[in-house]
Amino acid sequence: MSTAIDDYLAKLPADQRQALEDLRRRIHAAVPGLTEVISYGLPGFKLDGVLVWMGAAKAHCAFYPHGLVEEYADRLTGFETSKGAIRFQPDALLPADLVREIVQRRAGEDRERTAARKAGRKKA
């Protein structure tokens, strides 16, 4: 069965496709049971809300960790970053432990936000 992310990846050059398929596996391994979506035109991975995104541009691949780039800056030496993106080359993947840590942190934040929202509804 083809998914929207499979369709996104199928359009990429082989090296970028392979790099993002690897990142996809790492994301799912970090937090089993995530749902895949296309959000903002990019592959996203969600529990209640989207935790992280990934994508490809002409000259790089990217991981979008929902605003956590600055907090992990000391571990991103050698990668090009912006406020919301970590860019990497298909032959220089992000470290698996870093991806796992970021995705698990985002999952914890998502669960806390969902629990707080549910608790607020119960009080009302």
How would you summarize this macromolecular structure in one to three sentences?
This is DUF1801 domain-containing protein. The chain is α+β, with helices and mostly antiparallel strands. The chain is built from three helices and six strands, in the order ααββββββα.
Main attributes of the structure:
single chain, 124 residues, alpha+beta, 6-stranded antiparallel beta sheet, 3 helices, 6 strands, YdhG-like, DUF1801 domain-containing protein
Mind explaining what this structure looks like?
There is one protein chain. The mean pLDDT is 94. The protein has a six-stranded antiparallel beta sheet. The longest helix is centred in the C-terminal third of the chain and has 28 residues, at 96-123. The chain is built from three helices and six strands. The protein is 42% helix and 23% strand. With 124 residues, the chain is α+β, with helices and mostly antiparallel strands. It has helices at 4-10, 14-30, 96-123, and strands spanning 35-39, 42-46, 50-57, 60-64, 80-81, 86-88. Strand 2 (42-46) and strand 3 form a beta hairpin. The termini are far apart.
